[in-house]
Amino acid sequence: MQRAPTDRADVCIVGAGPAGAIVANRLASDGYDVTVLEAGRRFDFTRRRDQMEQAIRPGERGDVWEMGGERDDYSDNGARTYPLNVARVKGVGGSTLHWQGMVMRMHPADFDAGHDNDDPAWPISYDDLRPYYDEAERALGVAGDADNPFAPPRDEPTYPMPGFEPSYSDSIFAEACEKLGIAMHSVPNARNSESYDGRGQCVGYGTCQPVCPSGAKYDATVHIEDAEAAGATVIDRVPVQRLETDGFGRVSAAVYVTPEGEEYRQAAREFVLAAGGVEIPRLLLLSANDDHPHGLANSSGAVGRYFMDHLFAGSGGTLDRETRQNHIGFITSESHQFYDDPGGAVEHVDTGETFVAESDDDYSPIKLEFLNYAGPSPVEIALTGEDWGDAMLDELRGAYGNSIAMGGLVGQPPRWENRVRLNTDITDDHGNPVPDIMWSWGDRVRRSISRANAIQHAVLDELGVDIAWTANVESGSGPAYHHMGTTRMGADPEESVVNPQLRSHDLRNLSIASSSVFVTAGSMNPTLTIAALALKCADHLEERL
């Protein structure tokens, strides 16, 4: 394709994931000249069934989204190992190409420092983002039911599509949760429960991660294609090497390289960084110049700082009855009961026996999930086994069908020492220093994981599950790969990178639309909030254009 820059764009967007795609579509649809620069390539949608087959065949399993190698090299020199490339994608669509598709709103307490912990407040409130949440749910196509008693207030009483029915194993969990006084409710999902926005309903391939072959699950190519139809230019396989500034407080150009090694400068009136919580701070640091010796937008020293993620807590085992796991590739039920009240007790409603005592320690919010993909996959058993016919069927019956598990997320507090920095000892395929992840947990994370495990064990014990594993502080817990906080939002330019309008304090025409602006992590999957912030960013850009 033609990869030369456009003559002069109104807006240049770096990154074609959900944030960049949404901003591009909004602005292009309103008549602005938009150019999107994406480091990865455009994947062929018609190959998704082949990708699915590749993903489920153990002998051929690989990275179907082509992550890895010198281009994607990184290091992690923090207290905790951070396997960065496990769950990111460089390409048109970004990580929504293989995401799980859960889209919850953060709670008002997440923004207002309302949790009983030391998290700071955001410079915007839930009510500031509330109309954008409504718009984001329509844009992504969210299926859900208004049955969550702990959900934040909504302007739209219903979701764009009805929610998915609870799974069979959800009904098993419901027995124990009812006895323990734990409320279960549906999960809002960015996948079609019915035809929506020109895309068909979910057909149940069950391979949502790493690939949805049908397109029923939202990914950002939806808005990229809409943006292109409205006149936007999207250039793939052009990693941006640096941003140039004009000496007068503005970005003048994004410098990128084509697969043939040609270097180009894309000029624009406004620039938007939407490349995620690792590559955005890396690019800002790589763009250091005489006027900005410590990197762009970094007068506060906060670029790359306050790196946060969500930690997974979970437990599972087997029951002496069928659970029908691995029929569904996504979660249909969860509980937010311990989100705003993570120290709440768990007591048997019949006997009054306390399974988990009330605690006034400070915790991160806890989001509980009832998994639908515990235990071995029948496809994997069949493909890796040596038996055929009746012998294979006997093996499947013996090894599959009675597994059951719970999961959950807890968030990290923002810590100055957790950061993304440059490692000048290792370079990528263009000679640039790679990102170095400095990651640690802290005591509150450990307490919160243990608290989530205690609640999960109470439910599993009530069911009579033979618990075989627990993802806890000692072993098994790890990141959810939600990169947040490396260009935080704030009103004070000495402590933050962007203002409440998502514009850099230091550079008048540079905005950031990403989870990198999150002030706190909460414990909700971040994509709906990313989409809402992207829509807010687009509104502020239009005010200036």
From TrEMBL:
Superkingdom of this protein's organism: Archaea
* Keyword Transferase appears in the UniProt entry: no
Q: Where is the 4Fe-4S ferredoxin-type domain?
A: 192-222
Q: Which residues form a coiled coil?
A: none
| Entry cofactors | FAD
Q: Which PROSITE patterns match?
A: 4FE4S_FER_2
Q: Tell me, what's a Pfam family for it?
A: GMC_oxred_C
Keywords, sorted A to Z: FAD, Flavoprotein, Oxidoreductase
Family named by the database record: Belongs to the GMC oxidoreductase family.
Task: Output this protein's name.
Answer: GMC family oxidoreductase
